[in-house]
Specification:
about 15% strand, six-stranded antiparallel β-sheet, alpha+beta, Glutamine Phosphoribosylpyrophosphate, subunit 1, domain 1, Rossmann fold, 2 domains, single chain, about 40% helix, 21 helices, 19 strands
Length: about 600
């Protein structure tokens, strides 16, 4: 994983003041240097400046970036962030077309795929990536992002100049770009429960390259094109054949994420997806004569490990230790105190450049720093619940008038100033965004009403909730120089599972996820009890956050007071403050976001 920054302009030349422009590109990249602590580089051509910071997992000596290849007297330069899972296959395909390779880095594979196929290279890539190509032959800049938003890429087009960066903080180094937030941005933060609309970057004059999209910029302007969209297809396989296909797809998804400097460690948490991914990884590494390193997490002052581990009869070991032994894994339990995790609320805002509803990704700060000392990448289970429809909202039924996941929009509606509420019209905004998403959902002709509703619910989860989850995990892990890889976000697996019969994904009689666990987990592996929690809570953590929130709400100079109704705040403080840490966390993060970035509200 790495970081990208730079800018392009086709109405003038950058070569006369090359070192000035290179300094600016480097300054933009320096703001995101945590994404690439191993190396950095910069490139300036006639119309494009690129800077790159690198976390070197593949070919550290030869995979330096920006990487330039010359063909037909023209230069093609790439700045790339991510991992390509079909690099070997694509390399062979390109070699058959007389392309030669000088490194083992997948950066060169992506660049030469662009040379061969142009913008049509995007559908051929399988991985988690974002990249920018400076194409001097066609005199254009090409931006591309993976199908589900595993790697970030933002841009801003003003005065015929395109600026871009992996994170928003990199763009704020570009002259003329400031952290301004208007009505739309505030609705995204307060009204959509921390799940952003694809392409919306919250800040004024800044957009995000949408997942599964490319962006082309040249003298004629900017063009946004979609290259991937989930498809509705009839599922024709029988149940047993489907189970075997799923086993093959998931095994391949795990195995390719262990290659080329991949993770020798995995997160082992009290969730079926985590245990399944770790079991497959342990088996695959065992075949290669290597042992899986597994980490589980425990929080001091929270009353129990997170999530709660059951007490095992006649055993003093935790269930994670017992499971690790069954997998022959080298297991380590990491411990974090409540006050340390409370401080991570502020670190998360800085990492994401946005507030949110802190969840389990908050753990990536205290634990990620410890893991990064031994490992540069880790296998995780992000997307498992969303893919196999085990998130809580799949069990409660689908209300097509609102987004299904729980959030804080009702809290903000009760606390905001009446005039601000009237201006924002958050419910109306959310309804429009929801309808946009539902209108883009693919369906089968003649599909029964209930199956169609569940398809729509799955589509919302995979195209709205999952990218936001991946965004939070990317920022929180990369803030500590740790790359996360999840097999459940493989687009081939997601496309296949999206079209499976609903009753096979979560039915009591036939359940394909249960079949996967039977196929890969050892028979003596302890069974899980309960499901994963959305975030930390406990006897010390809750009071800590309430204390901090009380201080903020009693201080009239805190920036959040510009949004809140004084009468509503008085009533809020007069009653018992909520014991739910998510409520306090949301208010604390929004206040710190406004304060730290000095945000100008353009309302």
């Amino acid at each position: 994983m790495s970081g990208i920054a730079g800018f392009s302009v086709y109405t003038e030349s950058l070569t006369e003041e090359k070192y000035l422009w290179m300094a600016l590109a480097r300054r933009m990249a320096r703001r995101i240097s945590h994404r690439g602590p191993d190396d950095r580089g910069a490139h300036v051509s006639e119309h494009c400046a690129l800077a790159h910071v690198r976390l070197a997992l593949q070919d550290p000596e030869n995979g330096l970036q920006p990487m330039t290849v010359h063909q037909g007297g023209c230069a093609f330069t790439i700045a790339y962030d991510g991992e390509l899972w079909n690099a070997a296959e694509l390399r062979r395909e390109l070699e058959a077309q007389c392309f030669h390779f000088h490194t083992s880095s997948d950066t060169e594979v992506v660049l030469k795929a662009y040379l061969c196929y142009g913008e049509a290279c995007a559908p051929r890539l399988c991985g988690s990536y974002a990249f920018v190509v400076d194409d001097s032959l066609r005199r254009l800049t090409f931006l591309c992002r993976d199908r589900f938003g595993g790697r970030p890429l933002f841009y801003s087009l003003q005065n015929d100049r395109l600026a871009f960066a992996s994170e928003l903080k990199g763009l704020f180094e570009y002259p003329g770009l400031a952290p301004e937030v208007g009505r739309e941005g505030l609705c995204e933060v307060l009204g959509l429960d921390s799940v952003r609309t694809p392409g919306c970057a919250v800040f004024e004059h800044i957009q995000e390259v949408k997942p599964g999209h490319t962006v082309l910029f040249d003298a004629d302007g900017l063009r946004d094109r979609e290259y991937f969209h989930l498809e509705a297809r009839p599922h024709l396989e029988e149940y047993e054949e489907t189970a075997r296909t799923l086993q093959d797809l998931l095994t391949e998804a795990v195995a390719c994420r262990l290659d080329d400097g991949g993770p020798l460690c995995a997160f082992l948490e009290e969730s079926p997806g985590s245990e399944l991914a770790a079991a497959i990884a342990a088996k695959e590494l065992g075949r290669r004569g290597r042992q899986l390193c597994a980490y589980s997490f425990e929080l001091e002052g929270f009353g129990a490990p997170l999530p709660p581990a059951p007490a095992w009869e006649n055993s003093e070991e935790s269930r994670m230790e017992e499971l690790s032994r069954a997998l022959s894994a080298d297991h380590t339990t990491l411990v974090c105190a409540a006050d340390t995790l409370g401080d991570c609320l502020f670190e998360e805002v800085i990492a994401r450049d946005l507030p949110g509803i802190p969840g389990r990704e908050s753990l990536l700060f205290p634990f990620g720093r410890l893991i990064q000392k031994r490992h540069r990448a880790a296998l995780c289970s992000a997307g498992a619940e969303e893919l196999f429809c085990s998130s809580s909202w799949f069990q409660s039924g689908f209300d097509p008038s609102r987004f299904p996941w729980p959030g804080m929009s009702s809290l903000w509606a009760s606390l905001l100033k009446p005039e601000l509420l009237q201006l924002l019209r958050m419910e109306e905004y959310a309804a429009v965004r929801l309808q946009e998403a539902l209108d883009s959902c693919p369906v089968l002709r003649g599909e029964p009403a209930h199956s169609r509703q569940m398809r729509e619910l799955s589509y919302l989860t995979l195209t709205r909730y999952l990218p936001s989850l991946l965004e939070r995990e990317d920022r929180c892990s990369m803030a500590n120089g740790l790359e996360l890889r999840s097999p459940y976000t493989d687009h081939r697996l997601i496309q296949y599972v999206f079209n499976l019969p609903w009753e096979w994904k979560c039915g009591p009689q036939k359940n394909l996820f249960t079949e996967l666990r039977k196929a890969f987990l050892p028979k003596d592996a302890p069974k899980p009890e309960g499901g994963p929690q959305s975030g930390p809570s406990g006897p010390e953590y809750g009071p800590l956050l309430k204390q901090r929130l009380t201080y903020i709400l009693q201080d009239s100079l805190q920036p959040i007071q510009k949004l809140l109704s004084p009468e509503a705040v008085k009533q809020f403080l007069a009653g018992p403050l909520p014991s739910d840490p998510l409520t306090a966390s949301a208010l604390i993060q929004v206040n710190y976001w406004l304060l730290h970035y000095g945000i100008y509200l353009k309302l």
